[in-house]
Amino acid sequence: MVLSSCTPAATRRVTSSPRAMYYWRTTFEPDSAELAFLRQHHIGRLYLRYFDVAINEQHQVVPVGTCTFAAQQPDGVEVVPTVFIVENCLWQKTAGLAAKIVKRVLQMSETNDIGPVKEVQIDCDYTLRSRERFYDLLQQMRTELRKHGIALSATIRLHQLRMPPPPVDEGVLMLYNTGDVTRRSDHNPILDMRDVAPYMRYLSDYQLPLTAAYPLFEWKVMFHHDTFRHIAYNSVDEQCKLKGDTLIHWQCTADDIVRVKEAVEKERKDLGSRVTLYHLDHQLLNHFKKEDYEKIFDE
Description:
With 299 residues, the chain is of the alpha/beta class. It has 7 helices and 14 strands. It has helices at 32-40, 97-111, 131-146, 193-196, 235-239, 254-267, 290-297, and strands at residues 19-23, 27-28, 45-55, 61-64, 68-69, 78-85, 119-123, 151-156, 170-174, 210-215, 218-224, 227-231, 245-251, 275-278. The strands form 3 sheets. Strands 1-3-6-7-8-9-10-14 form an 8-stranded parallel beta barrel. The longest helix is centred in the middle third of the chain and has 16 residues, at 131-146.
């Protein structure tokens, strides 16, 4: 929907702050606490999830989970439209998919007065098997976006560092979900230096400009003895325990993040050029103190 109170995209002020956050909810409506957090910590960029690309029951590749806009773009904050592509889409007929994604992103931005759009980001957990198809799709998207003077970026997971880089202008290294949440161990599956360390050797030779993203979220994971049951997303999930069930609460400390941040930036200085947190949610913002956030964001 179009909000009449929005500042026109062509004249809206945005900042060049190297601090960013993801916004990964289906309704864009940051509350007062979230807006205050953006101002307090001088967050200048939001990677805003627009929609997912998935396969429907008719085996068609379609947009799902489209974000609805119930608030205007915060003044001083650049929005980067972000699209998550489910990997199995890459094995379907994808002719024209790149142009359709770009068209939909631009239409959503125009309709909801988001802009100026300078970059679009694609998120996909591609593998060695699907890499070639995904890179072809990215190359087509990059060609389409260049017609509008828009850059293309992609998320990079640790295991993807072993592959040649994708044909994009920049990568955001996902330094979260580094472990296996379904495996019961003493490694924090959200972020653990022991899981990051084996991939450090790929950083210096990875031929793509990189910035980094770190976790703000938590997981409560239910195991039956040593067998993974589910992630508990609410109190009902937590209380649905069987005999032999154990609920394990995982969360990173600011020191955990800073430790990894210092290690990866030692290998790649550009990883410190912009720090991103996943994700903006008022229920998570009290995890750290103001001084902890400043340590994490410190350039």
